[in-house]
Fold this sequence. Notes:
Blueprint: E1 13-18, E2 24-29, E3 33-40, E4 45-52, H1 53-62, H2 64-74
Antiparallel strand pairs: 1-2, 3-4
Amino acid sequence: MARICEITGKSSMRGNKVSHSNHKTKRVFSANLQTKKFFIPEENKEITIRVSAEGIRHINKNGVYATIKKAREKGYLSK
C-alpha cells in the first residue's frame, strides 16, 4: 500500500541529507500518516482511512462527510 494520504493526496518527497561537511546524499521525506477510524452519520457507517496530520485538521475544520465527499470527487478516496 502506497504511503499517500487519502484526504489530501500528500505523498513522500525527495531531498538531500546534508552532513556537517556539507556532503549531500539523497533521502526520502515521508508524509506524517496515521490510520484513523471516522464515523459518518450521514451514511451510518465507520470507515478506516490513512490520513496525514493536515488531513485530520481538514476533517476537524470542515466535518467528516464534507471532507470525504471532496476527497472522493478529487479521486483520492475510493468509494
